[in-house]
Amino acid sequence: MHRGMAEATRLTRQGHLEEATAAIQRTLGGKFFPASSPGGPGDTDVPIDVTSRLVKQTPKGPAGRHTGGRGPTLLTRGVGKPSGTRVGRAASAGVPEGGRFVERSYTNSAGTRSYKLYIPSGYTGQAVPLIVMLHGCTQNPDDFATGTRMNEIAEERTFLVAYPAQAGNANMQKCWNWFQAVDQQRGRGEPSIIAGITKQIASEYDVAEGRVYVAGMSAGGAMAAILGATYPDLYAAVGVHSGLAPGAATDLSSAFTAMRQGGPVVARRDVPDGGYREVLPTIIFHGDGDTTVHPRNGDRLLAHLEGGKNGSSPRVTTRRGRVQGGYEYTRFTYQDAEGRDLVERWSVHGLGHAWSGGSYPGSYTDPRGPDASAEMVRFFGQNHKR
């Protein structure tokens, strides 16, 4: 699988798009989405305690930055920590006029996590979509909201956005623990907490049925992929930016190996007790200049999604473009027999470990790439549970 995808990547960089598409088709060999597998253990995400408060609006503006000084060592920097174009102190989120940014917390048997919820001014009780956004290491909800500009898009398009926050006592660098076996399972660990946050919001606001989505960056992207795999009944589609496939690691040592070299191609049945039942439509972004999470992990995630529901081969289309004054990119789209987009794989040429098309006031962003936030919202809008 990897050899075929590497050949496709080489052909793409040389501009041979037809040959690259053919190589992908040969590699897939008529399989794309796995068949359903038995469900996992029962949910344990029953809320124990919920608190909330309204956060005052914060004026927009760049936060102070520093790039000098001695960096963290390999053992203290955490797993999946971004190292992109903009680094340094996390930014405070600006709130679009009329919108509200509510800070809350959620507790179940697996632990407690705070989160922030953006409620657009256009929400008056009607059914609207919900997107759950998972930050990368060292980030927080304010910083991630600023860097992705997802609140601004939510204000324009009228949907809710939730930003769960990793706790410092769960990971000192505030990385989601995507590499621990207990945090890759339905009804346990961090997936149960994030799913519980999602359900709590849906119980208190009018969330449109079948229009709940999850996306993330780096460690958050890896956790988003895990949530899509373990809770396909809750989420309708997944966005993974610079992340890793479920099962790419089971401890800290294998996590570093996966980040540097690309994780193994893991069959869903080999992921520890995950309860995976289906694979959701997924949009993948990864920079081919990423030196923190190897770009090969994007291919590994694609391999994880391999093996068609009905045994048929997806139709693959390839498009290459360039952001004005920015990076070139290649987008591979995988469609089923009915023409529905199952997976989009965006390779941004020259992008490091940073949110493509992001806003500089946020950390680990690069505005020179295609707008990942807008593309994910578009992709999500095309996919909902029927």
Account of the 3D structure:
There is one protein chain. This protein has a single domain (2-62, 71-382), classed as Rossmann fold (3-Layer(aba) Sandwich). The chain is globular. Helix 1 (2-13) runs antiparallel to helix 2. A hairpin with a 2-residue loop joins strand 2 (100-108) and strand 3 (111-119). The strands form two sheets. An eleven-stranded mixed β-sheet has the order 1-2-3-5-4-6-7-8-11-10-9, sandwiched between helices. Strands 12-13 form a two-stranded parallel ribbon. 25% of the residues lie in helices and 23% in strands. The protein contains nine helices and 13 strands. The chain has helices at 2-13, 17-28, 141-148, 150-157, 189-204, 219-230, 252-261, 296-304, 372-382; strands at 49-55, 100-108, 111-119, 128-134, 160-164, 207-217, 237-241, 282-287, 315-322, 328-335, 341-349, 355-356, 365-366. With 386 residues, it is an alpha/beta fold. The longest helix is centred in the middle third of the chain and has 16 residues, at 189-204.
Using the coordinates above, name the CATH class: Alpha Beta
The profile of the biggest β sheet is: 11 strands, mixed
Please give the domain count: 1
Order of helices and strands: HHEEEEHHEHEHEHEHEEEEEH
* CATH topology call: Rossmann fold
Q: What topology, given as strand order, has the largest sheet?
A: 1-2-3-5-4-6-7-8-11-10-9
Specify the oligomeric state. Answer: single chain
- Gyration radius from CA atoms, angstroms: 19 Å
* Helix/strand structural class: alpha/beta
In CATH, the homologous superfamily goes by the name Alpha/Beta hydrolase fold, catalytic domain
Shape-level CATH architecture: 3-Layer(aba) Sandwich
